[in-house]
Amino acid sequence: MNRKFKKLVVFLSTLIVLFPLLIAGCATTPPKDISNLCEIFYEKDDWYDAAADARDKWGVPIHVPMAMMYQESSFRHDALPPRDYVFFGLIPWGRVSSAYGYSQAKTPTWSDYMRETNNSGADRDDFEDAIDFMGWFIYKSQKVNGISKWDAYAQYLNYHEGWGGYKRRSYDRKPWLKKVASKVKARSLRYATQLKTCEEDLQKGWFMKLFS
């Protein structure tokens, strides 16, 4: 009995030491090469399936929301907006907005998404939910403001300013934002070109990939 007890103690002690390491190993990390859409999907093999599902559901080309997500969070699941400061910029006081996660969706807009799609369990730090949210938003931008789902420039302006802000052309007072939207457009075009070279391979099931 004493020997068995000692073995149990050793096992539990080992488990306690290794548990934090196991948790860290399971933590979500951004792709290593976020400049190449093929490399992103090869590394995160379930991301392509999620992006393709959003494409099929909302009619949104994969490269557009992926380019927007790059700009918003650099594919960090727990991305947060900058801190706000008070007292002459000396004391941190919360965040500048409620944006969070891969898509940097704000809490009210995320709530609208969950209600309209009946996806009450959606999480902003889950890639599948985040890419579906962005597909929904791009779809709505086309419905509300007549913006092509392929127009990454105007879609990003809608995403940043909201549908009402875009209608009021609030972005005209923000030349820096137009520059960012141009970067999103350029990245979306690069992503589209890259995806053409690897999508056929990405569409293969795991069984077929064993023989490719």
TrEMBL record:
Entry keyword Signal: yes
Give the originating organism: Alteromonas gracilis
Q: What's this protein's name?
A: Transglycosylase SLT domain-containing protein
Q: Which residues form the signal peptide?
A: 1-29
For whether the record's keyword set contains 4Fe-4S, the answer is no
> What keywords does the record list, in alphabetical order?
Signal
Can you give the residue ranges of the Transglycosylase SLT domain?
Answer: 15-198
Under PROSITE patterns, the record lists: PROKAR_LIPOPROTEIN
